[in-house]
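Build the 3D complex.
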Amino acid sequence: MTETSGNIFKSNLIFLIYIIIINKELVEIETDKNSANFNIKFDLDKINTLEIEKLIKLPPDPSYGDYCIPSYYLKQKGFTGSPEDIANKIVGFIYSYIINPLYDINKLENSYLQDLFKNFTQYFTFVNAKGAYINFYFNKQKFANYIITETLTKKNNYGRNYSGKDKTVVIDFSSPNIAKPFGVGHLRSTVIGMSLARIYDFCGYKTIKINYLGDFGTQFGKLITAFCRFKDDDIDIDNNKNINNGDNTKNAFNLNSNLAEFKNDPVKFLYKLYVKFHSEAETNPELDNEARIRFQKLEKSIIEIDDAVELFNDTSDDENNNIIINGNIYDFCTENIAENIKDTQDNNKDNDRDDEIVNTESDNSDNTELNIINNNKKYNSIKYHNIESNDKIKKEIPGELYLWKIFRKLSIQEFKRIYNIINVSFDFYEGESQSSKLAVNLVNILLKADIAEKSMDAVIIPMEKTPALIAKSDGTTLYLSRDVATAILRFEKFKFDKMLYVVGSEQALHFSQLFNIFKILKENERKLIESEKLNMSCNSDEDKNNINYINTINKEINDKRNNNDININLNKKIDVNLFSKYASEIAGKLYHIKFGRIIGMSTRKGNLVFLEDYINEAKEKALLKLSEDTKFKYNKQHPDGLNNIVCDYFNDDELTEKKIKNIDDTDNSNNKKDEKNLIININNNDDDAENQVFDVDIDEIALKVGIGAVIFNDLKTRRSIDINFNWDNVLSFEGQTGPYLQYSVARINSLIEKLAKEYSFKIKIEKLYYSEMFADTDIEIEKKDFCNVQDDDFELIFSIVKHLSLLEDIVKDAVSNDEPSIVGTYLLDLAALFNNYYQNYKLMGLEPDFVYNRILFLISVKIVLETGLNLLSVPILKKM
RNA sequence: GCGUUCAUAGCUCAGAUGGAUAGAGCAACAGCCUUCUAAGCUGUGGGUCGCAGGUUCGAAUCCUGCUGGACGCACCA
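Done.
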């Protein structure tokens, strides 16, 4: 027997349908209501509940019932005749055997069957056949009370299911490029990925969130070149003009305004350099050349220097970041690196083409380009010692590597700051740079195995359509080959059942090639094994190096989920037969979660939009609205105003993380509990109520509203379609928007609070907020009847409760389609239903018992709304 | 040219995987704040589901063709 849906009404119906199906002969005979037949077949072990569940549909209109079964579905189960006939016969069967007072259920031999039939009459009051449909009508009161009890009992676990039990899903999302600003393009991946992670988690999967940084590639040569050449220039890309193009290299890196800017906003500064590089390169081809050389040096040093990636460990937290930014290393670096790089720059002028340089290798000791790589000469490398480890021995590394590390580190810091704002976290930060070693090896093995072949000096894997390019003609690896290597390493570590790449649809070809490669590797497993053996036993220097790479490549990724960065353990050796070992297992487990582009997104100046500006724009709008509205709402209507405004986060860990980040000046040894509620107390000075409203941290609220608007805007539509960007749409807080959902929750909170106060109910309001949901509430839920069919508002409540009951199915649906928008539209419907109720049915002043029950009902609505918002990673506000 | 993908109300989108009468939100118009937050609610108007065929009891949904848009097509990621 397979697992059933969490809703007992549905599971009961599933069993009934099963009985109908296996007793088909009995159903097809027109049974005489009075002639009892107690030989009903029933075999508990053989039920495939999932299959039967698919037969159950929701009628389009409540008047057609609460569940229905289209009888034409039953033809596949062996029923014959017209759909109308089938429906009629089945309804006849149900009335003869179950809802028939003359039929004595107790005479059934199977006691389980007895219970089932008894339950059925309790859960369903009415069954009819209408055309091709068999319609089932709930015992509405029982249903409503059942669902409300369920939500109140399970709280923020309501809707959770375990369809992903014992399965691991790796989600690769966000993946910004180092040294480039975090724009709205990355936002989509980030937001979709984060939401999927939460939804998968809610379905019981072990979910691993990975941020795969674009920390490698030709652009870093460009950036380093630009940094060395232009760092002291006046660059203002906003106005699109470059003042002072000259060579300003006399005083290397003074503490001038540029340095201040670099320290203050490194990513933006680097972006400016990058833009400047491209505009300069148009007239000066030498720049591109220099960039290429510098990247080659960088790549080589990453591969050759054992702990290259680990230097100035990215795992370090604020403490060490401060060292980099403010302390000795920084100053040391800035003085020396600038000098050194200037030297290489000067030398570089003699070498216009990189192949010349490559060919003059080793014998020209004055050629600094090569010495950097091979000899670590004083003038072209950087001495440093690792303060963290109290390592007294100074090491020397190439300047390119040093700068690259600095850029990388500062960028990660900046990204983390932004992720913090939108409440996104990762289990691991990875980088392309980490898999380049393995990627090199992959190319060799595939060549030997005849799976790949050379084509115009490059290495390709032939495919039906476009051949996959896995190495450039200069032997360096590409995005694609690194992705293959990365997938292997990840599989080795996580043994995932699924890996999702949340990347825009413009990269569809790349991923279809990637998946194809694994398919090809699987088909050629034997060849691969041979090739790997060969690779191990060969003697050429090149191959030895490769074996060396593979032995030293990082394999060990720290298990600690909370450690946010890559931890590389270089001591651990890995299997050489990594590819043949895992490739066939990986095939078929990779998915490209593609999404459409954002069209027409630009600032008023026409440039790339930075995420932060985007959020700020939304925040400003919210602030405006808030200042207009609160004045009216809280001062005129409710003179007692707000006592406290609580800005809540949904995740304790993330909350703590944020708190720690914010409080950097004080040693925060307070217990966690105090941190949880960021309560901002307002001076409740009666005289000056009007001004107080603005003392409230409406800033915080506005920010959350802005974030909610921005995030929900990306999640409310299906991934695949392109978004026509329109400021008015994003900045609209009315209708189908994030703020509308947040507002609905805030309304419920406020209402509950008011009613509890008015009626002196002992309800601890703070226990009702999402982050506290794990704690026991003081609500008594033993009382089963929260509502009654005779109540005036019953129909309204029933329609809402029915919607609440869908949550589990919605979540499953979202997972099977990898589509967060399914949750989004569900929430909009639910919020609309609630607001309808809110507006049309006033509770204040009604009977206390009745009101108390309604509060419990409101809490159950709130639970579902908040659960959904949490799944979408939309901030939940207690008040707004 | 080849491939992927999209086309539903003036605009932005749903449409439960082929099922009962195609639904929301903006925008327009008409109402609703001296009791619960008007970021809200109620009502009205608005459709040849891009076009043309096909598949069957039944199509916005599936297949083919066409039109129109977006993206991609080997040394970028």
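Chain A has a mean pLDDT of 75.
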